[in-house]
């Protein structure tokens, strides 16, 4: 039995429709230094239901950090980012954009919508693991996250 309380666990919401990226992210985070629980949704509509704790997500904890892909079905990452960052109850949740796009206009647009950082997903497997570990090291170890609200 662990000595960690529920509040010692960092809840991460991964909004990603690519199964391989989900699997790799889970793998990269499973042996982390910080206890985390990774929750996955595969489109923007589900993401908004999750963060607003609606429907089947009514009993989930609000995520401490969101890893958000931009290119998704039903509602894209730009729309999710805009909705979260303009909602007074959600806007403090840090959002890390994790996208295959390296286009300057996508980077500028997400920062304009108040993304907390933008990371281009590397194609190389080892680089992908390093990126996820870097996110973990920075966002879960160094940064003081806002309290759940």
How would you describe this protein?
By secondary structure, this protein is α/β, with parallel strands linked by helices. The protein has helices spanning 19-30, 44-51, 77-86, 104-112, 125-142, and strands spanning 10-15, 36-41, 65-68, 95-99, 117-120. The protein has a 5-stranded parallel sheet, with helices on both faces. Strand 1, helix 1 and strand 2 (36-41) form a beta-alpha-beta unit. Helix 1 packs across helix 5 and helix 2 runs parallel beside helix 3. The longest helix has 18 residues, at 125-142. It starts with 9 loop residues before the first strand and ends in a 7-residue tail after the last helix.
Jot down its keywords:
single chain, 149 residues, alpha/beta, five-stranded parallel β-sheet, 5 helices, globular, disordered N terminus
- How would you sum up the global shape? globular
Termini Cα gap: 28 Å
Low-confidence stretches: 1-6
Tally of helical runs: 5
Order of helices and strands: EHEHEHEHEH
**Overall number of strands:** 5
Q: Could you give the order of strands across the largest sheet?
A: 2-1-3-4-5
Portion in strands: 15-25%
Mean pLDDT across all amino acids: 88
The structure class reads alpha/beta
Query: Any idea what the radius of gyration is?
Result: 15 Å
- Report on the biggest sheet: 5 strands, parallel
Which percent range fits the helix content? 25-40%
């Amino acid at each position: 039995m662990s000595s960690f309380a529920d509040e010692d666990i960092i809840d991460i919401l991964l909004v990603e429709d690519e199964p391989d990226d989900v699997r790799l992210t889970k793998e990269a985070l499973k042996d982390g230094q910080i206890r985390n629980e990774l929750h996955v949704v595969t489109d923007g509509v589900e993401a908004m239901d999750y963060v607003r704790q609606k429907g089947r997500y009514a009993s989930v904890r609000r995520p401490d950090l969101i890893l958000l892909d931009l290119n998704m079905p039903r509602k894209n990452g730009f729309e999710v980012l805009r909705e979260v960052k303009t909602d007074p109850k959600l806007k403090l949740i840090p959002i890390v954009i994790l996208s295959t796009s390296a286009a300057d206009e996508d980077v500028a647009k997400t920062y304009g919508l108040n993304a907390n950082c933008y990371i281009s997903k590397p194609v190389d497997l080892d680089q992908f693991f390093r990126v996820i570990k870097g996110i973990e090291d920075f966002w879960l170890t160094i940064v003081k996250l806002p309290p759940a609200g």
